[in-house]
Every structure is written in structure tokens, then in C-alpha cells.
Design goal:
By secondary structure, the protein is mainly alpha-helical. It contains one helix and no strands. Helix content is 95%, strand content 0%. This is Entericidin A/B family lipoprotein.
Length: 39
């Protein structure tokens, strides 16, 4: 049973990392667009 729980926790953590990475890229792109408009 503990192995199943650990595996599920690892999968959730990996999915969260991908989501956070994608969100970071979106924020970066938005910041670059604002910076270009400011110039």
C-alpha cells in the first residue's frame, strides 16, 4: 500500500512541475510583450 501512495504522490508532483513551468513561461511571455509595448 505505501508503494502505491508514493507512486501517486510522485505522479502528482511531476504533473504540478509541468503546470508550474508552463505558467512561468506564460508570465514571461506576458512580461516581454508589455516591455515591448512600453518601448
Amino acid at each position: 500500500m505505501p508503494k502505491i501512495a508514493f507512486t501517486l504522490a510522485a505522479l502528482v508532483a511531476l504533473a504540478a512541475c509541468n503546470t508550474v513551468e508552463g505558467f512561468g513561461q506564460d508570465v514571461e511571455n506576458t512580461g516581454e510583450a508589455i516591455e515591448e509595448e512600453a518601448e
